[in-house]
Amino acid sequence: MITLHIYSKKLTQIILKMKKVGLLLFSVFFVVAASFAQEKAKKETQKGHTDQNKFRQMKDVLATPNSIRTASGAPGHQYTQQKVDYVMDIRLDEANNRIYGDERITYHNNSKDHLEYLWVQLDQNMRADDSKTPLAQSTGASAFITPDNFKSTYMNEGKGFGHKIELVESNGKPLSHFINRTMMRINMPKALAPGETFKFRIKWNYKINDINKDGGRSGLESFPDGNNNYTIAQFFPRLAVYNDVEGWQNMQFWGRSEFALEFGDYDVKITVPADHIMEATGELQNEKEVLTNAQRNRFEKARKTFDKPVIIVTQKEAEKTEKGRSKKTKTWHYKTKRVRDFAFATSRKYIWDAMAVNVNGKTVMATSLYPKEGNPLWEEHSTRAVATTLIEYSKLTFDYPYSKAVSVHSERQGMEYPMICFNFGRPNPDGTYDDRTKKGMIGVIIHEVGHNFFPMIVNSDERQWTWMDEGLNSFVEILASLKYDSELFAINPAKNITRYMGGDQSNISPIMSQGDYVKQFGPNAYSKPAAGLYMLRKTIMGPELFDHAFRTYSKRWMFKHPTPADFFRSMEDASGMDLDWFWRGWFYTTDVTDIGIKKVTPLYVTDKQSDRIKNIIKSNPAAKGYFDGLGELVYITNKKEDANAAALNKHVKNGKKVPAFIYQVEFEKPGGLAMPIIVELTYADGTKEKKTFPAQIWMMDDNKATRVFAATQEIKSIVVDPDLETADVDTSNNSWPKKEETKFDKFKNQVKG
After folding, report:
1. For domain 63-79+460-577, is the CATH number 3.40.50?
2. Which H, E and C letters describe 194-247, residue by residue?
């Protein structure tokens, strides 16, 4: 199959020359006619319009670049960010399910601003008895409810949750502060100047929530035997981010949109019952004090084992331990640098395994903690999934910088923190499980471990732009999951997002929406941005360009606070591609993709002049001389009976066969999104050929585009987007000849809509 390049080139030349002839011939007529029209009736003045072209640049939408955030998307030479260090003593009161904390905070003002106050996040106040979160929810009566929830909801009987602030002081003196729900303002004795540090202390305690009964991103899971699985996070007062974009990021925590925090160093001691096993953010400082000799020896073996997990605490040992209740305590001591948060998990029920992972020559420990209720699923897959995540994410971003990544099992959780995450996926009581449970468990582990990269290291503001951590992470998760099990995780994100995008527009929000008011949170923050990035990589940019750009963005903003503009600009800067049309359409609107075939006109090569050419020559004597001057020509006709491809034979060298079949295809775009046109041609002999036209084909006309296909044999069918790569919400117009819609197809479309 070849394209008729000779004809196309000559035709273009003819058209250009004819345009010049036409101007000379009709200029006099135009002047006379225009003068006459003016005398007859004054022309109506047309209203102007703003530039609405889908390919207009986004300079009016994105923040103006400066020396802090550059036009390339990189941090500027004046970029700064704050640093916050924590020294904490934490105690778990298992008998009363309370946590007590005493933290000493050092705040480093690296900005150029004088700070009159500091803002501290108190996330636990979201479920306090006086929380506004329940009041902001539009809810009707539930068909069933627990007695405790009934009392708290309808009888004003609180559960006693929320932070109890015991002490706020600096240098031994009370420190003025004010609590506004989930935010506490620390009033500075004097403004904190640039380059200065401020040290203060907060003592606090709170009642731990039961995750399955009270909800929450952290808390405890209770078991029938009285044991608890504690997965503790967002538990201590934490400094909010202060930066050049928003100043203080002190938006209230309503329960959905998460949090942004400053990086710093942590020194944390956690006291728990002596028979507990624990993992936490940071490196354990006192192995000899908290681990048995057997556990230490096994862990030492794990540090050198790269092919499979090594069991540190066996199921048999965990089952024996969970039957007791130690009256003694142990204090686990962790230290780490350059992290933006701290979390831990502790229980006497834990089985513990670990293995070493080679991340470009650096050994990182992949670790899992889980009760027997998680087996055999967790022993078989958890740590291996952690290892795959670290390797695959590092390929696309940067080498994982921390010493470990921990996966902790809890029945209904899926939540991430630096170096540690809490994940669901529990087999049946008899230990059996199906592929759905297995897929869900492995998927959530890869996703939550992946959050170490976004946003625990590339630290976007989750409360403002949920998609910057969830969407980017969900995209990389797709690639990592395929590496773990390509059959189990076979997926087409572009196809899967069409049901959401083609749904009721009143229930859809643009991706660029603040997370708390987003409708259909999952598709908006997770699936749609992930699908968009998947299409960018696979269809629009190609893996080589995309991967370089994505890696560039990730490395630029390691341990920093990027914005959407920094991401958009970095992707364009590092790839050399103008993607403003894609960001604007996919992220800032709820437009959909719908590209179809409107008309196909079969054409043929001939040596006979068409009626159109004949009429031009007949009506315009100058045109005859023009055509005669061109010499011998071949023509394109829609009359099959005039077809004569042999007319070109003497002009074609190297024994190439003249394409006797030519098809002019007019594409339509009922959808608002510009996307590449991917065309699959099926020839008479059954062979197929794909052609891709970039999205820029729509630059001059947003509604239609025309292309000509030439072939040496008949084209039996033409299909747009045959592999469903562009999230086309309506494929009924994608084929020529048009396919008859079956009853099942109609049903699918009804469901989709």
Report:
1. no
2. CCCEEEEEEEEEEECCEHHHHCCCCEEEECCCCCEEEEECCCCCEEECEECCCE
